[in-house]
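From the pipeline queue, job 12 of 40. The input is one protein chain; the requested action is below.

Action: predict structure.
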Amino acid sequence: MNSVQGLLAASVISIQNSCFTYPACQNCLSRLILDSRRFHCLKCGCTGEAKDASYRYRLSLKIADTNDLFDITVFGSCLDPFFGITAENLQRYMQDFNQLSGETNTESSTRALVHAVETCFIGKRFIFGV
Protein backbone atom coordinates (compact mmCIF):
# COMPACT_ATOMS: atom_id res chain seq x y z
CA MET A 1 0.00 0.00 0.00
CA ASN A 2 2.83 2.43 0.79
CA SER A 3 5.22 1.24 -1.93
CA VAL A 4 6.02 3.79 -4.61
CA GLN A 5 5.95 2.30 -8.08
CA GLY A 6 6.91 5.44 -9.95
CA LEU A 7 7.39 9.18 -9.71
CA LEU A 8 5.28 11.77 -11.45
CA ALA A 9 6.25 15.43 -11.79
CA ALA A 10 3.01 17.38 -12.09
CA SER A 11 1.35 20.68 -11.26
CA VAL A 12 -1.67 21.02 -9.01
CA ILE A 13 -4.68 22.27 -10.95
CA SER A 14 -7.27 22.24 -8.16
CA ILE A 15 -8.14 21.03 -4.68
CA GLN A 16 -10.96 18.47 -4.85
CA ASN A 17 -12.24 18.59 -1.25
CA SER A 18 -12.50 21.05 1.62
CA CYS A 19 -12.00 18.60 4.48
CA PHE A 20 -8.28 17.96 4.84
CA THR A 21 -8.33 15.76 7.94
CA TYR A 22 -10.33 12.71 8.91
CA PRO A 23 -10.66 10.62 12.07
CA ALA A 24 -8.43 7.60 11.39
CA CYS A 25 -8.17 4.19 12.99
CA GLN A 26 -4.77 3.76 14.63
CA ASN A 27 -4.74 0.09 13.58
CA CYS A 28 -5.72 0.18 9.90
CA LEU A 29 -5.89 3.93 9.02
CA SER A 30 -9.52 3.64 7.81
CA ARG A 31 -12.01 6.40 8.47
CA LEU A 32 -13.66 6.09 11.87
CA ILE A 33 -17.37 6.46 12.48
CA LEU A 34 -17.77 9.08 15.22
CA ASP A 35 -20.76 9.87 17.36
CA SER A 36 -20.82 12.34 20.24
CA ARG A 37 -19.02 10.01 22.66
CA ARG A 38 -17.56 6.98 20.82
CA PHE A 39 -15.71 5.98 17.68
CA HIS A 40 -15.89 2.73 15.73
CA CYS A 41 -13.85 1.37 12.83
CA LEU A 42 -15.95 -0.56 10.34
CA LYS A 43 -12.88 -2.25 8.85
CA CYS A 44 -11.12 -3.71 11.90
CA GLY A 45 -13.72 -3.23 14.66
CA CYS A 46 -11.59 -0.96 16.84
CA THR A 47 -13.62 1.21 19.26
CA GLY A 48 -12.91 3.93 21.79
CA GLU A 49 -13.91 7.30 23.15
CA ALA A 50 -14.47 10.02 20.54
CA LYS A 51 -12.14 12.42 22.38
CA ASP A 52 -9.29 9.92 21.84
CA ALA A 53 -9.72 9.64 18.07
CA SER A 54 -6.62 10.31 15.98
CA TYR A 55 -6.71 12.40 12.82
CA ARG A 56 -4.88 12.00 9.54
CA TYR A 57 -4.43 14.21 6.47
CA ARG A 58 -6.30 13.45 3.25
CA LEU A 59 -5.79 15.89 0.40
CA SER A 60 -7.50 15.15 -2.92
CA LEU A 61 -5.96 16.96 -5.87
CA LYS A 62 -6.41 17.29 -9.61
CA ILE A 63 -2.93 17.40 -11.14
CA ALA A 64 -1.51 17.66 -14.65
CA ASP A 65 1.77 16.69 -16.22
CA THR A 66 2.64 17.70 -19.78
CA ASN A 67 0.19 15.20 -21.32
CA ASP A 68 -2.51 14.10 -18.89
CA LEU A 69 -4.80 15.04 -16.00
CA PHE A 70 -4.92 12.88 -12.88
CA ASP A 71 -7.01 12.74 -9.72
CA ILE A 72 -4.85 11.74 -6.78
CA THR A 73 -5.19 11.65 -3.01
CA VAL A 74 -2.26 12.32 -0.71
CA PHE A 75 -2.54 10.80 2.78
CA GLY A 76 -0.74 11.05 6.07
CA SER A 77 2.18 12.75 7.68
CA CYS A 78 3.94 13.62 4.40
CA LEU A 79 1.66 16.68 4.47
CA ASP A 80 2.86 17.83 7.92
CA PRO A 81 5.60 20.10 6.46
CA PHE A 82 3.10 21.85 4.16
CA PHE A 83 0.60 22.52 6.93
CA GLY A 84 3.30 23.10 9.56
CA ILE A 85 1.36 21.00 12.04
CA THR A 86 0.11 17.43 12.38
CA ALA A 87 -3.42 16.59 11.21
CA GLU A 88 -4.45 15.88 14.79
CA ASN A 89 -3.22 19.29 15.97
CA LEU A 90 -4.83 21.08 13.00
CA GLN A 91 -8.16 19.42 13.82
CA ARG A 92 -7.88 20.49 17.47
CA TYR A 93 -6.79 24.00 16.48
CA MET A 94 -9.80 24.43 14.19
CA GLN A 95 -12.19 23.13 16.89
CA ASP A 96 -10.64 25.42 19.53
CA PHE A 97 -10.70 28.39 17.15
CA ASN A 98 -14.40 27.89 16.41
CA GLN A 99 -15.22 27.52 20.12
CA LEU A 100 -13.21 30.58 21.19
CA SER A 101 -14.61 32.74 18.41
CA GLY A 102 -18.15 31.66 19.27
CA GLU A 103 -18.68 30.37 15.74
CA THR A 104 -21.64 28.02 15.47
CA ASN A 105 -21.18 27.91 11.71
CA THR A 106 -17.67 26.70 10.86
CA GLU A 107 -18.01 27.83 7.25
CA SER A 108 -15.84 30.95 7.57
CA SER A 109 -12.90 29.16 9.23
CA THR A 110 -13.16 26.30 6.73
CA ARG A 111 -13.22 28.80 3.87
CA ALA A 112 -10.08 30.49 5.23
CA LEU A 113 -8.28 27.14 5.52
CA VAL A 114 -9.31 26.12 1.98
CA HIS A 115 -8.02 29.45 0.63
CA ALA A 116 -4.67 28.93 2.40
CA VAL A 117 -4.35 25.39 1.01
CA GLU A 118 -5.25 26.56 -2.50
CA THR A 119 -2.61 29.29 -2.26
CA CYS A 120 0.01 26.77 -1.12
CA PHE A 121 -0.70 24.09 -3.73
CA ILE A 122 -2.50 25.36 -6.85
CA GLY A 123 -0.13 26.18 -9.68
CA LYS A 124 2.83 24.61 -7.90
CA ARG A 125 4.78 21.66 -9.28
CA PHE A 126 5.49 18.63 -7.10
CA ILE A 127 6.93 15.16 -7.55
CA PHE A 128 4.33 12.58 -6.54
CA GLY A 129 5.09 8.98 -5.66
CA VAL A 130 2.44 6.82 -7.32
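Job complete. The chain has one domain: 9-122.
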